[in-house]
Amino acid sequence: MSRLEAFFCQARREGRKALVTFMTAGAPNREVSMAALKALPEAGADIIELGMPFSDPMADGPAIQASSLAALENGMTLDGVLEMVRTFRAGNTTTPLVLMGYFNPIFSYGAETFACAAADAGVDGLIIVDLPPEEEGELLPYAQAAGLDLIHLVTPTTDAARLAVVLKNAGGFLYYVSITGITGTASADPAKVGAHLEMVRKHTDLPLAVGFGIKTPDDVRRLAPVADGLVVGSAIVNALKSCASPDEADAAVRAFVGSLSSALQE
Amino acid sequence: MRANSFRSGPDEMGHFGSFGGRYVAETLMPLILDVEKHWHAARADQAFWDEFSYLCRDYSGRPSPLYHAAAASAHFGGAKIYFKRDELNHTGSHKINNCLGQILVARRMGKTRIIAETGAGQHGVATATVCALFDLPCTIFMGATDVERQKPNVFRMKLLGAEVRPVTSGAGTLKDAMNEALRDWVANVDDTYYLIGTAAGPHPYPEMVREFQSVIGKETREQIMEKEGRLPDSLVACIGGGSNAIGLFHPFLDDPGVKIYGVEAGGHGIETGRHAASMNAGRSGVLHGNKTMLLQDADGQITEAHSISAGLDYPGVGPEHTWLREQKRVDYVVANDREALEAFQLLSRLEGIIPALEPAHAFAHVMKLAPTLPKDHLLVMNLCGRGDKDIFTVAGELGVSL
Description:
The complex is a heterodimer. Chain A is 49% helix and 14% strand. Chain A is an alpha/beta fold. Chain A has a single domain (3-265), classed as TIM Barrel. Chain B is of the alpha/beta class. In chain B, 42% of the residues lie in helices and 17% in strands. Chain B is built from 16 helices and 14 strands. Chain B has helices at 29-43, 46-60, 70-76, 95-108, 122-133, 144-149, 151-159, 174-187, 205-213, 215-228, 243-249, 278-281, 319-326, 337-351, 357-369, 391-397; strands spanning 15-16, 19-23, 66-68, 80-84, 113-118, 138-143, 163-167, 192-194, 234-239, 259-265, 283-287, 289-294, 331-335, 378-382. A six-stranded mixed β-sheet of chain B has the order 3-4-14-9-10-13, with helices on both faces. Chain B is globular and about 55 Å long. Chain B starts with 14 loop residues before the first strand and ends in a 5-residue tail after the last helix. Chains A and B meet through helix 5 and strand 6 of A and strand 2, helix 1, helix 8, strand 11 and strand 12 of B.
């Protein structure tokens, strides 16, 4: 059983929701982001999304754009991201970790080589924002062969017909993009999200994690009832932005992610 | 795609060989599929083409002349040079052809707001123009660097009623403007139509833009038959995203006797790494919704393009061009900033036509090519834009203060 499957199995048994946290690998710099990554599970993160920085993050708002740029300026590469995962796995073998990013760096690396290297480093799944089902044939077979879940996105624009296309080959969990927009901008409306998720649930047993526009413990409280997991990204990236040292990053993660986790347990 | 034809692409998934496709965020997928549905319906509707032709003729001033550049021909002492005068279009470039077509598609879709990216500002002006014509609000995303170097066009867009949003991310050029336009679109999927300015982006844009710009090549075919009684021997056009070029080339792709040259922007020179020649110095990759040749580093990060011409300052190119290059049907060459600047001045003096810096790149290649060719060689260059917008840039380069 994969880490993701094992986690959601247990969470369902315990009636618990998942706190999914996003951070950009290498931002604001390698040491600070490594310390943050290590601190996440103890602070209450159930699933980690590690962002692979890209020069042109078209689906991201200002916070993640800036963090991607900072990471790249500090020399972060795909190999660097995998190295961070290996370091993380040396101290944690249970927390599911998925990589999130854009396709070009993977295409440049070689999809097959990358899938093997990622699985080998301890990655559990991939979310590739600009690789819709129509184009994922060039990554899917390699990801599946390596035991990586390809996590698909469902959005407010996904109707029932489109959902069938999205659900085919979807692995791990479904990432529900709660707003039409970019990361870290508008706030999600729980009633709308809940209604759409009801429709989605009729067609799949995959866990549903809701992301985009969830920034505060209050947001977490409001959306927890309708989802299996909640993704917080830009707000964490912002909390790390001003951290000057690994110690500060550790403290920032424990404080902020801790507050999200407490809100979720309520 | 049909065998033995260079004109049958893309396939139904939007691929030209291994290029093209639809690499967009899931939020945009239903909308992209909807654009495709409406475009295909429009394409099959004679009334749609009648309206397009009417606007091209009575609003934009088509057909543009095919002009025998006798002075330039005599100057080089070689090929008989013709200019396809698309700079005479309303708004001063070929961009209006595509805008007139897409605005009709947007109206068929019932969209009430238009967004677009622009580099040199020609596409922004053309978009603002058709939006004024059809009374639709429009927002133009333009890199902050380009806003600075293309001030006349920024003012034109504002006069036409458009909102111009300067984009400061990245280097503040066309690539960044396109990122920002995509971000806006994803946030406004219900009412907004993204009027892409070049033959790139997710399917069906490369195909749709090509079909609207093909009016250039179709007219050229008729006009050269009328004047010379035969097809041209060679075609030359500049390539940024490649819409003016594919528009001229496409109707001739299956005529093996027609040699075709696309001219990329060499910036400071390919060897300096500061250029915009994605086909001559890039690698295959995925950006802005399509797989194509891109300027990128070893880790797949997109690098900045450099060109004196804001309209060519883009690290990618339309996917059909990358396919035509792979098929060896079109020869893609390079002209650098210095050559384009020289061509800009020479064309102004020889023919009394101040070209935009973009087709000045095409003319820079004509300068190399024409002297080597016999006098009965018919060469057609797409003079796709006029240079009024560039006089500040050129004056600056020549050390003249205006």
